[in-house]
UniProtKB/TrEMBL annotation:
Parts forming coiled coils: none
Name the UniProt record assigns to this protein: Citrate lyase alpha chain
Compartments where found: Cytoplasm
Pfam families (UniProt xref): CitF
GO biological process: acetyl-CoA metabolic process
EC number: 2.8.3.10, 4.1.3.6
Alphabetically ordered keywords of this record: Cytoplasm, Lyase, Transferase
InterPro entries in the cross-refs: Citrate_lyase_asu, NagB/RpiA_transferase-like
GO cellular component terms listed in the entry, alphabetical order: ATP-independent citrate lyase complex; cytoplasm
Species name: Formivibrio citricus
Length: 513
């Protein structure tokens, strides 16, 4: 066993994963790798990329046992491509596939049966919830899942650590030569940013569409030069499933109090100024922070430089009001974001690598002044868990959490002090997702805790009259109200490996009992 930089005990080798490179710190591990490249191809005049169906795609490539098939998640819980592709694999008797799906949602429940029958024996993803996450937590999958960050997945693909044999890209619009975008057609989903690395580095790229347009398609998100085949199916997904949880500002008075305090933290830190850059999530509390920041920006008559990340209608409104000059969009969280990226030239589509990869010449998260994040748990060292629930069952993943926390000048976690009648502050989080060195402030309804690494920030918040407490004080308040949580019983088998964005191992998830 090894002890990594945040004190987690990690095996030197994980069966089904391989040798472990231990997490040494958020910026301690240099790249030490080269970018990879797919084989060079040639197309002759008159060659056609259009195929009659998914089975013909499988035969033409051909797809064989043991391959890695990749997919993007821009349709979120409305995705229809993953299930259709894997059903085709099952019909053709293909086994032992690895699925590299950027995020897994309840709609992907058929994966569980593919685990049981051996069609799929490995999963590589950045987030998972629903029946698949439950099954993985109970040990149904043959190999441990690799849980990456959004930037870490892009890095792993670019550097050949996640080698993709066939990328199946759900394309809301395509032309017969393989130019595709996410902003036209009846199933428009917005940015296709998470599919960009797959298209660039996979051995074979298949555009799966339900809307063919005449050549040349415009605009082009992924060009014909990277697409080998185009197949038209009846429907690739339901855009209504894109909506992430709630995209409305919370009405809960406790969460509104937390959001108001978080906005005052941003103001006290001196960030409400011209050129301000900002990322927030799609949850009700996060949107409420954006609401209060919006009011502050209007009052101060300032213009921010850009908003980043998963984009909601609330951020679109701030762009259209002139509060931000640009939106940098790797993923749309609602249909307003889809509308905006299709029509506003200041709403920019970027790749996952541009957004958050730690190993390039500079990703967008490094330009963030502030990010607002959530937490399932946080410990007294400010390490955050957004992977497992209080029962040890997987219910999420880092996504862009660790990436944005590392890049932003000010990283704020907003959370109720009690979650489901359990304290959120622990001596040690069950599963470490984001290292505490990259978290600056915790905002709860009972007060604000500042990471000891940010002593100057703590003085700024105190000077502004904010209710600053030690994180241990907040922990004691929570335990006085709800008691100390019991230790979660877990099995010995490792069902998931939590990679940090640089490819080192931050933690492992053991089988839930």
């Amino acid at each position: 066993m090894m002890i990594n930089a945040i004190g987690r005990e990690i095996p030197e080798v994980v069966e089904g994963y391989g040798p472990v490179k231990s997490f040494a710190g958020a910026f301690a591990t240099p790249p030490g790798m080269q970018r990879q490249a797919p084989a060079v191809k040639a197309a002759r005049p008159g060659d056609s990329k259009l195929l009659d169906g998914l089975e013909e795609v499988f035969r033409r490539i051909p797809v064989r046992d043991g391959m890695t098939l990749s997919f993007h998640h821009h349709f979120r819980n409305g995705d229809g491509v993953v299930n259709q592709v894997l059903a085709t694999a099952a019909r053709l008797g293909i086994k032992n596939l690895k699925v590299a799906l950027s995020s897994v949602f309840p709609v992907h429940a058929p994966l569980v049966e593919h685990f049981k029958t051996g069609v799929v024996t490995a999963l590589d993803t950045n987030y998972m919830s629903g029946p698949v996450a439950e099954a993985v937590s109970r040990g149904v999958l043959a190999q441990p899942v690799v849980l990456r960050t959004h930037g870490g997945r892009a890095r792993a693909i670019e550097c050949g650590q996640l080698k993709i044999d066939v990328a199946f890209i759900a394309a809301p619009a395509a032309d017969p030569c393989g130019n595709i975008n996410g902003v036209t057609g009846p199933t428009a989903c917005g940015s296709l940013g998470y599919a960009f690395p797959d298209a660039e580095y996979a051995d074979h790229v298949v555009a799966v569409t339900d809307h063919l347009e005449a050549y040349p398609l415009s605009p082009v998100s992924i060009p014909q030069t990277r697409v080998d085949y185009v197949v038209k199916i009846e429907r690739i997904g339901d855009p209504k499933g894109i909506v992430s949880g709630t995209t409305r500002i919370t009405k809960d008075p406790v969460q509104l109090k937390i959001a108001d305090t978080a906005a005052k933290v941003i103001e006290a830190a001196g960030l409400i100024r011209d050129g301000f850059s900002f990322q927030t999530g799609a949850g009700g509390a996060s949107l409420a922070v954006a609401h209060f920041v919006r009011q502050m920006m209007k009052k101060a008559r300032i213009t921010g430089s850009f908003a980043l990340g998963g984009i909601t209608g609330h951020l679109v409104e701030m762009l259209e009001e002139g509060l931000f000059k640009k939106i940098i969009d790797v993923q749309g969280f609602d249909l307003e974001a889809v509308r905006s990226i299709a029509s506003n030239p200041n709403h920019l589509e970027v790749s996952a690598g541009f957004y958050a990869s730690p190993f390039n010449a500079g990703c967008a998260v490094n330009q963030l002044d502030c990010v607002i994040l959530g937490a399932t748990e946080i410990d007294t060292d400010f390490n955050v868990n957004v992977v497992t629930g209080s029962d040890g069952v997987i219910m999420g993943g880092s996504g862009g959490h660790s990436d944005a926390a590392a890049g932003a000048g000010l990283t704020i976690v907003v959370a109720n002090l009690l979650r489901g009648r359990l304290p959120i502050i622990m001596d040690k989080v069950l599963t470490a997702t984001t290292p505490g060195e990259t978290i600056d402030v915790l905002v709860t309804e009972w007060g604000v805790a500042v990471n000891p690494r940010r002593a100057e920030l703590r003085e700024q918040l105190l000077a502004a009259g904010l209710p600053v407490k030690e994180i241990g004080e907040l922990k004691a308040i929570a335990e006085k109200m709800a008691g100390k949580p019991k230790e979660v019983p877990l099995g010995s088998r490792i069902v998931a490996v939590v990679e940090y964005r640089d490819g080192t191992v931050l933690d492992v998830v053991r089988q839930a009992k």
